[in-house]
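Raw record, unedited: TonB-dependent receptor
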Amino acid sequence: MVTTAIAGVTTVQSAMAQSTATQALEETKEIVVTGTRNRNVGGLAVDQSVTKTRSSITEEFIEKQAPGSILEAINILPGVNFSDQTATGSVGGDITLRGFDQQRIAFMLDGMPLNDTGNYAYYPTMNPDSEIYSKVDVNLGTTDVDSPTASAGGGTITYQTRRPSKAFGVSAKATLGTNDYSRQYVQVDTGEFGPWGTTAFVAVSNLNSNQFKGIGTEDRKQINGRIYQSLGGSDFASVAFYYNETRNNAVYNSSLATINAGNWSEAYASTIGTVSNSISSGSSGYYGYRINPTNNGNIRAQFKKHLTDKLVFTFDPSFQYTLADGGTQVSTLTESTGVLSMVGSSYVWNELKGYDANHDGVVSTTAYKVFSPSVTETRRTTVNSSLIWYIDPHNTLRVAYTYDHGNHRQTGRVSFLEGGQWIGDVFSEDSSLWVYGKNGEEIQKRNRQSYANLKQFAITYGGSFFDDKLKVDLGVRVPDFERELNNYCNQISSSTAYCAKDPGTKLVYTGTVTQITAKAPASWTVSYDKTLPNLGVSYKIADHQTIYTSYAETISAPRTDSLYDRLSLDLQPEISKTIDLGYRYSSPNVSGAIALWKTDFDHRVETAWDEEIGASVATDVGKARMKGINAEIGFTPVKGLDLYASSSYTDTEMLENVYYSATAYNPTKGKKLGKVPSVMHAVNLSYETGKWDFNVNGKYTGKRYASLANGDAAPGYTVWNANVSYDLGQVGPVKDAYLRLNVKNLFNEKYISAISTGNVFYDSGNYFWIGAPITTMVTLGTKF
C-alpha cells in the first residue's frame, strides 16, 4: 500500500470496486476527476467518483478494529445495519442494507459472487480474515453494471484483497481476550522474486473461544494467499486463494417475553437430559446437538491486458466449494411405530415401522436419538470478462459477459449417534452410520439437487464533458437465469422429504393433519430474464462540490426453497427500482456526502398460508416502498485527529394486503418491514500522537419490528467500542512491534442485536439475539 498525507486526508492506492474491468474504469475516472485515488479520512469518508451512492472503508480503519467480522467494520457506514451473534465474528450475523435483508444483497470478493446459489443466503462466518482486505465498497441500492448476480435487490457489498508487498516481510499477531478468546495470525510477504518481479503473500490464522453465554465453543482455522504479477503499466495477472474450517456451537436466541422478564443469559442445556436456565434439553435443547460446521474454500484469478493502446481485455475466473451443516440436527426414532420426530414434526415412516433399524435384535418401543443434519454442498464456477474501448480521453465503451454455474446439493441423511449420544461425523458422510429402511435405502429428511446457471450480457458507456465537469454513465445488463431442480425424494413439504419408492404412500402425521400424500420425485426447470438499466449522471458545480443522480433496476430471482414445493412455479422475480439524488463535498480536510433515495420493490416474496391449497407456500405479497436519507462526513481539524459521522433514515411501507383466501387477508397494507431500523447514527474518532493511537466509535440503532404485524419490537440501543495501540518500536530483531487493546461494548449495554422472524405476518415464533456484553482483547503484533 502506498499512502500520502494531504493535509490530514489520506490517499490510498489499492484495488477498487468488484471486477477487474470496473476497477480499471473507476481508477481512470478518479485520476481524471479528482487527481487522487481513494482520498479518505482515517479510512472512512472515502472520496467517491462514481455516479451512484457508495460508501467505503479502507485498511487504515480496518486494522484498528478488534479481530472479528469485516461486516462489523462496515456497520459504521450509512444504510448498513449489522449484528454479530458473538463478539468474535466466527459464528455468524445478520445484515440489512437500506431495508433489504442479506438474501437480497449481493456480496462479492474480488469480483466473485459469495451468496448461496440456492437461497441467496450469505454466511459471515465464512469471511476471510479482515487483515487481507485493502478496501470494502458498499453500493447502496444499486449494482455495478457487470455484477454477476441474480439476487441484488438492495445493493452490493464488495471486498478487495490487498496486493502483496514488493518487500519481504513477516508479520505476526497473538490475541487473548474475554471468554478464553485466543487467536494467532501469521502473514508472510515474499517480496519480489523471479525474473519478472512476481510478488505473493500467504496468511494463516487460528481462533478458539468460549461463547459469552452457555458453554458453547468456537473454533476456526483459515488460510489466505495471493500471487501477483505485473505485466507492465497497469496490466497484471493475479491468483488468490482461501480455505476455511469452522466448528461452532449455535447460540441460543430467546423470546421477547423471556428478555422482558430480565433473563439475558438463556442458553442451551449443558448436559443431555437436564434442564439449564429454564430450557428443556429435549433432543434439540442440548448445546452439543446444535452445531454449525463448515468447510469452504475458493480460488479466484484476475487478469488485465492492453490489446492495443485503446483496447483492454479483462478476465476474472473463479471456483468455490462449500460444505456446511446447521439448524436442528438431532431427532428421535421409535422403531415399533416408525415415528421419526424432527424439526417440530413427527411422521410415521412406513419403511421404519416395526423394523429393527439399529440391528440390536429388538424393535424398540421407546424413542432414541438419531443425527439428522441439513447438509449443503456447493460447487460453483464463475467467469466475468470485459472488453473496454477507450475511444478517447473522455469516452469509453465496455461490453461484459458473465457465466456463473452452481451445483447445489442438499441432503439430510439420518444416521446413528456414536454411543447413542454423540455427534461424531458432523456432515453424516460415514455410510456405516446411516439409518436404512426395510427397502435397503438410506433414510433422508431431504435429498435434492439444483443447478443455477446465470448468463449475463452487459454494456456501458462512460463520457465526460465540459472540461470533465459533467460525467455520464449509461449501462444496461441483461441476466438470463435458469434453475434446474431435482427432488429425489417423495416430498412432504419444501423442508422435509420422504425417501421411499412408492410415491402414493400415505404418511400418518401425529399433529393436526391425519394423512399426507407424498409427491413423487421430479425434475423441472424454471428460467428468468430481465433487462436492467443502470444510469448515472454527476456534475461538478464548484471546486470540491459535485451533485449526482442515478437510477438502477435490480433483480432477485425466486430461491430454491420457494420452488421445491412445486406450488409456486409461477412466481415472478423480485424487482427493485431505485433512484438517488446526491451531493458530495471533497477538500483536503473535509469529505462528505448526502443522498436522498427511493426504492419501489415489486413482487416481494414471503412464505404465506394459502387457504385453497391448505399449505404454507412462497407467495408474491405485492409491492413495498422504501425511501430515506444517507449521509456521512469526515473531518481532519488538526494533524493526527480524524472525525467521522454517519446518519441514516429509512422509511419502509407495504402497499398491499396479503390475501390467503378469496376474502380473508393479512392486514399488511401500511405496515413497516420487519428487522429494519428507521434511524441509525454513528461516530468515529481517531487520534494519533507520538507512539499512541486512540480510536473510539459508537452507533445508535433504532427500534426494529419483528414482523409485518408491527407488534413485537426490539428497542433501540447504543454500543461503543474503544481501541488503543502503543508502538513498541524495534525489539531485538523484531521491528514495528505494537500492543493493542480492543474493548467491544465499552459500557456493557444490554441490548437485542437482531431478530429471527418466525412468521412474517404474525408475532409468533419470533426469537431475539442477545448482544454480546463487554469484551476485551489484547493483541501483541510484530513485523520481521
